[in-house]
Design brief:
CATH class: Mainly Beta
CATH topology: Immunoglobulin-like
Order of helices and strands: EEEEEEEEEE
Radius of gyration: 13 Å
Shape: globular
Number of strands: 10
């Protein structure tokens, strides 16, 4: 799930990324700002979901994916779009 909140005073968005995965021990977010090497670890909540909030600039577009347990790649079903990634699958696209 994605939640976008525009922060007018900063001219940016606060984006909350949330993923529910029953078999997950770890969840990471990769690809923001085209950085596929530096993961953002999501925190596990009491309800079993994983989430993180990240500030991103207005008028930008980002491709990303979730990596579960260091091995399984998942897309975000609530993303604004999907884009082919050249590896035979797709990435989620966030438009701000």
């Amino acid at each position: 799930m994605l939640q976008k909140t525009y922060i007018k005073s900063k001219g940016s968005y606060k984006v909350k990324f949330t993923l529910k995965s029953d078999n997950a021990k770890t969840v990471e977010l990769l690809g923001l700002n085209n950085d596929w090497e530096t993961p953002f670890p999501l925190s596990k909540k009491k309800d079993g979901t994983f989430s993180i909030e990240i500030a991103l600039p207005k008028d930008t577009k980002h491709e990303f994916k979730y990596r579960v347990n260091q091995t399984e790649w998942l897309i975000e079903e609530d993303a604004d779009a999907e884009a082919p990634n050249g590896l035979g699958s797709t990435n989620s696209v966030l438009v701000l």
